[in-house]
Design brief:
binds calcium ion, binds uridine-diphosphate-N-acetylglucosamine, Spore Coat Polysaccharide Biosynthesis Protein SpsA, Chain A, 37 strands, UDP N-Acetylglucosamine Acyltransferase, domain 1
Amino acid sequence: MSERTPHPPATPLLQVVILAAGKGTRMRSAHPKVLQPLAGRPLLAHVLATAQALQAQRRIVVVGHGAESVRSRFEGAGVDFALQSPQLGTGHAVLQAVPLLDDAAVALVLYGDVPLVQPAALAPLVDIAAGGHLALLTVHLPDPTGYGRIQRDAAGAVQRIVEHKDASTAERAINEVNTGILAAPVAALKRWLGALRCDNAQGEYYLTDIVALAIADGVAVQAVAAPDVHDTLGVNDRAQLAQLERLVQARQASALLTAGVTLADPARIDIRGEVVCGQDVFIDVGCVFEGRVELADGVRIGPYAVLRDVRVGAGSVVQPFCHLDGAAIGAQAQIGPFARLRPQATLADGVHIGNFVEVKNASMGPSSKANHLSYVGDAEVGARVNIGAGTIVANYDGANKHRTRIEDDAHTGSNSVLVAPITVGAGATIGAGSTVTRAVPAGKLTVARARAVTLEGWKRPTKKSEGS
Ligand code: UD1
Ligand code: CA
């Protein structure tokens, strides 16, 4: 070969336009539809992540209804916004993004309320558009009511899309429908958008009309069947949102099973964030995971626990009904039942936290225990400390918080109150029922309670006789 054929760019310049201006009337919400949460993140966040996975050079969100709240929610997320007001249809929506689109790029149109579409399903569309064609993502539906129908000619080539409201009875019988997702070369897209008219049943500028315009332009239109119908489901009402939530949860649960996690019931777990598990982790029913949760090898999570942004070390057991938020737990620890760990609770290996114990912004050293009915806040607790039942660290004087230090091997008696700021020395023992307000010396017994007094010759009152 004497001449080198130029290689096409490995990845075309991709710009993604996400339609999110619609009202979402059927959600009956004060909030924009695309901000409704799915698996703990707004619908729009799912779509933006998909665009990111495709290495989009630009992500443009077309906003209208609730524009300000959508904008402020995604401020600083590297997203561009185009305002569509009023909303005159999907074609008009894309038109608002045109000033931000590069003629040499490929535009991929996604919907802010179709959150589950996968990068792998979209990549072929982008490739087709990079080759100068128009690509549509389609599905076959047993009941295509409401969707735009894909009309093909006798040879099977795509001719145009007919919206349900504009379709004849014969056209309504077509089961192949438009998901709304498409990819096109930007320069051509701009031309077609400029030619859109609104002489249809809804008086809108239909994006779907670019199909017939492309054909008229001599540009081939290729329909790509979505690999999984579920991925193209949109959210129009709360029932559909709930269905998608179950779908996402089922997928996340099966990913955990595949990764070797035992789930007591894959249908009874909710992950609103990310769960990263080691080997042989067991999760009982009814648990909710939020933010990022890390469970090391052999961790067991009992039923009905809520964990948000938590790390649990190897071999640790979380008993039923615990609420753990922003905590780091070491290995071989025992937590619960009914324990509450709040942000910055840092528990070393072998710590035991029992029922109705709350730990906040406090560290506990190896093998320390607080087994019953205690509050430990703003404290550093050493190793092998025993916090007796009902011990309260009084960290708050009504205006400010103060710190408490409890050194290694100290024991606090049942129902003791440690008034911060205070230090309890190593090996100190505090008698039950003591309220201590000053440093407690190491290695000694400190008791701060009224002595018991016994009155000699005292007689218990007797009940007066009736009628006297
Ligand atoms: C659209 C398609 C239809 C397809 C269906 C799939 C058109 C004309 N029709 O119909 O072929 O089968 O989606 O669900 O494109 N939006 C705006 N601005 C507007 C109008 C809509 O941003 O002016 C956004 C909406 O917020 C939504 C998306 O575009 O995210 C789709 O709008 P929707 O009204 O649901 O379109 P359909 O009539 O269902
Ligand atoms: Ca819709």
